[in-house]
């Protein structure tokens, strides 16, 4: 069989590709926001004085970081079903991705917390800032600023990892590709197009986070951080 | 349907776990060799080589492994190249691992202190001699903890080979589940098995990092 590529035949399904890409971004956006919150809480929990809370957070982080996302998604999917709870594939996908990225965020945030010099916290105490003020201004915001590049590349990885959600029939980009290739018998062209779309999505996300970083952290702007 | 988890099922899962390890080893060796070339290409004196390797890394790191796997399995089959699931999974993982290991190792090579490079040059060592005798021996020390850490990622990522029908741990779990239909219990067993493979490596990587951290101080420029 001679090699014959027919990209137009696949490209005419562009509305499907676009819808898939939009859903992928939507999945990534929800999981990023929830995962960032969840992960930050877990990172704070790991530093808790209660050894029960600290231990629970450590177990959560290690269990997630040492098992594949695919297994986690199936566990959430069938776990909820066995409890008699019926959710759409989208909700299950967001839940599984949130749990997953939360563990990685927790580990990154913990590194950020540990990098805060002890003296700054003592200085804040000396200036009679309240506990909440210290946490917000002296610990949390500077920590986020410090680990911002690591956090954002984790969120881009999350967007790519969301392709695994095609396995529980969430209609994101990879699922759309599977559907189109079984329809057109043009697997090679379909997956090349999808790969290009993912590269574009990850570049868009990175540029977006870079811009957001300039707005959120004026100090970074003065340092001239690379994209 | 029906029936209970018995010794045969567990044997089957064990066999799957062995294939997970086998595929991880293939990906590590293949990806390690290609990744080493990528790492050297990224710091090559030739601009075209640097750009080409940077583009490769960006493309692979911007694409999900699942899509690379589908491209390797269904994509190549569609244009007339029939490959086995093992070959497709092995090749896709090799390309994927190479991009990440290449970047990790490039960072390690470049983090060897600048005076070491200059001293080697001052001693009139050739480029190859400088790399082999001065830079790489130190870079390997720096690279060991992150590389062991990345092996955990490789093991986890081999689970995706299940979607192209390669019978590793995840796929063998799905097959057992098809006959027993107790998904939660079976996937829990699978998760625990992955954890048992990955967690010791994670701990080992952390410990190496601490040991090396102590030794690194001797490497700092005077």
From TrEMBL, chain A:
It is found in: Cell inner membrane; Cell membrane. GO terms for molecular function: transmembrane transporter activity. Residues 21-209 form the ABC transmembrane type-1 domain. The lineage of its organism: Bacteria, Pseudomonadati, Pseudomonadota, Alphaproteobacteria, Hyphomicrobiales. Signal peptide: none annotated. It comes from Bradyrhizobium betae. Keywords: Cell membrane, Membrane, Transmembrane, Transmembrane helix, Transport. The chain crosses the membrane at residues 20-42, 190-217. Belongs to the binding-protein-dependent transport system permease family. HisMQ subfamily. InterPro entries: AA_ABC_transptr_permease_3TM, ArtM/GltK/GlnP/TcyL/YhdX-like, MetI-like, MetI-like_sf. This is ABC transporter permease.
């Amino acid at each position: 069989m001679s090699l014959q590529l027919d990209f137009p035949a696949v490209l005419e399904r562009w509305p499907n590709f676009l819808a898939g890409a939009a859903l992928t971004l939507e999945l990534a956006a929800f999981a990023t926001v929830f995962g960032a919150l969840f992960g930050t809480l877990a990172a704070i929990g790991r530093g808790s004085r209660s050894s029960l809370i600290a231990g629970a957070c450590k177990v959560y982080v290690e269990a997630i970081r040492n098992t594949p996302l695919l297994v986690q998604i199936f566990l959430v999917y069938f776990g909820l079903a066995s409890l008699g709870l019926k959710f759409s594939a989208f909700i299950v996908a967001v839940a599984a991705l949130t749990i997953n990225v939360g563990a990685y965020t927790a580990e990154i945030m913990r590194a950020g917390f540990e990098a805060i010099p002890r003296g700054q916290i003592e200085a804040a105490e000396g200036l009679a800032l309240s506990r909440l003020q210290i946490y917000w201004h002296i610990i949390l915001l500077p920590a986020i600023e410090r680990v911002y590049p690591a956090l954002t590349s984790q969120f881009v990885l999350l967007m790519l990892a969301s392709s695994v959600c095609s396995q529980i029939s969430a209609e994101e980009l990879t699922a759309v590709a599977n559907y189109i290739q079984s329809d057109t018998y043009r697997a090679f062209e379909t997956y090349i197009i999808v790969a290009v779309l993912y590269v574009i999505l990850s570049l868009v996300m990175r540029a977006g986070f870079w811009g957001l970083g300039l707005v959120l952290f004026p100090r970074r702007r003065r340092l001239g951080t690379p994209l | 349907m029906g029936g209970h988890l018995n010794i045969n099922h567990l044997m089957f899962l064990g066999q799957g776990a062995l294939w997970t390890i086998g595929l991880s080893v293939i990906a590590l060796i293949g990806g390690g060799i290609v990744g080493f070339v990528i790492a050297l290409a990224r710091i090559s004196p030739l601009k075209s080589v640097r750009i080409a390797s940077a583009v490769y890394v960006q493309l692979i790191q911007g694409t999900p492994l699942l899509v690379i796997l589908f491209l390797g399995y269904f994509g190549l089959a569609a244009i007339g190249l029939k490959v086995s699931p093992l070959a497709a999974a092995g090749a896709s993982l090799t390309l994927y691992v190479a991009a990440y290991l290449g970047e990790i190792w490039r960072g390690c090579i470049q983090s060897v202190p600048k005076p070491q490079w200059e001293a080697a040059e001052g001693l009139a060592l050739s480029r190859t001699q400088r790399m082999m005798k001065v830079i790489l021996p130190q870079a390997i020390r720096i690279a060991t903890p992150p590389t062991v850490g990345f092996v955990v990622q490789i093991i986890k990522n081999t689970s995706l080979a299940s979607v192209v029908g390669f019978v590793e741990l995840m796929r063998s779990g799905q097959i057992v589940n098809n006959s027993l239909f107790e998904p939660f219990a079976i996937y829990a067993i699978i998760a625990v098995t992955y954890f048992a493979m990955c967690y010791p490596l994670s701990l080992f990587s952390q410990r190496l990092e601490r040991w090396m951290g102590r030794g690194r101080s001797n490497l700092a420029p005077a």
